Amino acid sequence: MSRQKLNVKKLAKVKKRYGLIGVIFVIVATLAGSYVEDYLSSRSAASLQVFETNGIELEPVILKRVVDGDTLVVTNANREEVRVRLIGMDTPESVHPDQEKNTEAGELASQYTKSVLTVGQTLYLEYDVQKTDRYHRVLAYVWLTDDVNPDDIATNMLNAKLVADGYAVAKEFKPNVKYSSLLKQLESAANNER
Questions:
Q1: Range 167-174 average pLDDT
Q2: Pick the CATH number of 51-193 from 3.40.50.10490, 3.40.309.10, 2.40.50.90, 1.10.10.10
Q3: Active site residues
Q4: For the chain, what is the mean pLDDT?
Q5: Beta strands in the chain (DSSP E)
Q6: Is pLDDT above 60 for 172?
Q7: pTM of the entire structure?
């Protein structure tokens, strides 16, 4: 509230020069400036809040780019770039620095993820027990819609969609195991269809 601490000398000069109307103007401008600043900071804080739908907390983000089948770069409400690692599943490598580790299946998974998503698309992150990994990536389940329903997981959650469509395998990364059994069921179903 430093704006509200009015400089007494400045007020005295304003009063001399412009009279009482000048003093009132300075006070009103100072208070209005504080009000606007408080209002704007409360609005940006509200936009950063996670919201809940069907009992699931989601954080909206904007897709900036797809790194590979299971890694994205998004922009959060703070306009920060965040690297997101999809959890509960794993895709083969396609952009590993050691070229020998990259596979055709990894490239297919990467292309599939790119075909499902659009740069600028709003995605919704759901967190599990750990929010980041040792590489400082955000760990999340990525929902394609904010109307989440675990019954529609195979079509509305990117992690599950990759498993259900055969581009990823279900993989537990403890302690992040919220959807492990569902993802394993989707993997079994995908393997049975082949």
A1: 93
A2: 2.40.50.90
A3: 85, 93, 137
A4: 81
A5: 51-53, 56-68, 71-75, 81-86, 89-90, 122-126, 138-143, 169-170
A6: yes
A7: 0.71
